[in-house]
Amino acid sequence: MSLAPSERATFFDRVLRAIPGWNYYQLLRIEPNATPARIKAAFHAFALEFHPDEVDDDEDDACREKADTIFRRGAEAYRVLSTASTRARYDEGLRRGDLRLVEVQAKPRAKPRTLEDIALTAKGKAHARKADQLLSIGDFDRARSPLASACQEEPANDDLKERLEMLWEALACAPE
Question: Which end of the chain has fewer CB atoms surrounding its CB within 10 Å, N or C?
Answer without folding.
Answer: C
